[in-house]
Design brief:
Blueprint (H helix, E strand, L loop, with lengths): L1 H5 L16 H30 L4 H8 L2 H34 L5 H8 L1 H4 L2 H12 L6 H6 L8 H12 L1 H14 L2 H8 L4 H30 L2 H7 L9 H10 L3 H31 L2
Helix pairs in contact: 2-15, 3-15, 4-9, 4-10, 4-12, 7-9, 7-13, 9-12, 9-13, 10-12, 11-12, 12-15, 14-15
């Protein structure tokens, strides 16, 4: 056995390293990556916190507790609390249908799920204005019934829903396709109902992928700017979310307050990154 192993062709021998690049070249690649991260991620993030705390904690806290800032925080949370659960239900239903069943229009459904990725958020916001604005398709009907959507909270929620609905579905579809349908079919053969199969078989198998999608969906919902900016009307204290409030403060040359409020989004980004790392680790552990 030893002599045979010693005479194996070169193609069966494994190199010591994963690549054939030299050590200096690999170090150069790492240095380039770290330099890019420092220039485009770490330095801007540090600049946000330095700018926010430049005039002291008192000014920082005052900017966060300003009534307009509190209103922006409240509206951002409301939009996320509505859009994330709705998109979670939609994502589970869409992924379950696409991964577990064959039906006409399946390709169209997949294309529609990817639509927000290909449409500019500004264009998406404009579409809601054209539909529900005072001169839109449904504008006259809404005015007659005293229903206000555009430049009000409903439009912000609708815009947030549109830009975030692919995230959960797109995380679950490949996961469910990889898992197949054998376990569900076995449960049904043994007498389980559809809901019992979902709660005891499907949902436990996708819980980490579902959590990953929810984290991404929540981060996008709270940080969305383009679509929300078009439909909000920028009414201070009423229709401004956190990103819109930061823009207004900065345009008013109140940079310290703008950076202070922006730290909330920075904390959200850091928290999202940490949560994604933990969930991704669990996902890798289950493969």
């Amino acid at each position: 056995m030893t002599s045979q192993a010693m005479t194996l062709p070169r193609v069966y021998q494994v190199d010591a390293g994963p690549t054939s690049e030299s050590t200096p070249f690999r170090r150069l690649l790492i240095a380039v990556a770290l330099t890019f991260l420092a220039a485009f991620l770490w330095l801007p993030l540090a600049a946000v916190f330095v700018g926010a705390l430049r005039e002291g904690l008192g000014v920082y806290w005052e900017a966060l507790t300003d009534p307009d800032a509190l209103s922006a925080i409240k509206l951002t949370v409301i939009a996320a609390l509505i859009s994330v659960p709705v998109n979670m239900v939609f994502g589970i239903a869409a992924a379950w249908a696409i991964a577990k069943f064959e039906f006409r229009g399946k390709s169209l459904l997949i294309t529609l799920i990817d639509l927000p990725f290909s449409v500019s958020p500004v264009i998406a916001g404009l579409l809601f204005v054209l539909l529900f604005g005072s001169h839109g398709w449904f504008g006259e009907f809404l005015a007659e019934h005293n229903i206000r959507i555009v430049f009000a909270v409903p439009a912000i929620v609708l815009a947030t829903l549109f830009v975030t609905f692919p995230f959960v579905a797109r995380e679950l579809i490949p996961l469910m396709q990889e898992q197949g349908t054998e376990e569900e079919e076995a449960a049904i053969v043994l007498g389980a109902s559809g809901w019992q199969t979902f709660w005891h078989i499907t949902l436990p198998n996708i819980r980490w992928g579902l959590l990953y999608g929810v984290i991404l969906c929540n981060a996008r919902a709270m940080g969305e700017f383009g679509a929300v900016s078009v439909v909000s009307g920028h009414i201070r204290g009423l229709t401004n979310t956190i990103p819109l409030h930061v823009e207004i403060l900065y345009n008013e040359y109140n940079a310290t307050a703008a950076f202070a409020v922006a730290t909330l989004l920075a904390f959200l980004a850091l928290g999202t990154l940490a949560a994604k790392t933990l969930v991704a680790r669990h996902l890798r552990g289950h493969h």
